[in-house]
Amino acid sequence: MIKKLLTLPIPDQYQVQTTHITMTDGTRLPISVIGQGAPVLMLHAYGMDAREFLPFILPLIGKYEFYLPHFRGFGAAKNIEVTPFDFVNQYAEDIDAIIDHVCINRNVESLPVAGISMGALVMWSYFTHFGTSRISRYLNIDQSPVIHNQPDWQGGLFGDRQKEMFAVFQEIVDRTLPYAQVEDFTHLPFSLKRRVTDVERLFSLLSVSRPRSKAVVQALTHQNDHKLAFYNHQTWQHKMRCLQAYLAIPYDFRAVIENVTIPVVNLIGGRSQLYDAKWQQKITRMLPNARDVILPRSGHAVPIDQPLQFYKLLKEFLQY
Predict the structure, then answer these.
(1) Among 227, 248, 269, residue at a domain's last position
(2) E-strand stretches of 241-289
(3) What's this model's pTM, rounded to 2 decimal places?
(4) pLDDT means per 10 residues in the chain (320 residues)?
């Protein structure tokens, strides 16, 4: 009996399919697709693999078909380079092509979109360049449309600690620039590999709030000397290019806010160290049709800090 059970085919709705959609520049971008039902688009964070959404969407795949694009340079698209320096704009153009493909193939006029962190920043760029006509509603997960602090806006990335943290990022970008053409991470000087992974761990730890989340991050990101010597970090170059753009480009999408009239749920980590909750609430008040959902115990990485609450809120958002 056990042997027979193990050989039973997995129902189609539980299988992750990988499709490729052609972008405007001819690049074929991989999209993970799972489920049966109304189409939903979910956009992942910096350094994330789109398939990391799977634990949260599996209970919903009987009602929805989830499209999980892999941004160039990450996940299943880790070998696809981003040519323009402004990677956020490139990603927004890619998302436009994906939404166009899904709407045509699924015969829908619009679809709901959820974006977390960098994926949400991409959506602010998308709204700026392509409008909202093909988005039925939007779930913005702990992301401000403004990255750099300004005289009239102090709610940028890292808030009061922005100058300090940007100096850390600038230092690691400057140190890695001479090795930009070195594809294999194992060929970097050991001290530089250690510094790169230490900065990544710092960023990850700042993204979570709860002790158990920090313990998980520590366990997943720790590299002893032996492991680090042979660590094949395939996305390090792209991560450095993204950091360069974050530091150099004054991303500020506030001008489009009043035009985003679709329903918006602004999901905020009450303890987020990346985007202060009070400044995020200001964005909600600026949007014509938005509401806040604040998780007081969560940091920036809401799905890690409060996974059950994230699932419930995602389900509620889709049933809206």
Answers:
(1) 248
(2) 264-269
(3) 0.94
(4) 52 83 96 96 96 96 97 96 94 98 97 98 98 98 97 96 97 95 92 96 96 94 91 93 96 97 98 98 98 97 97 95
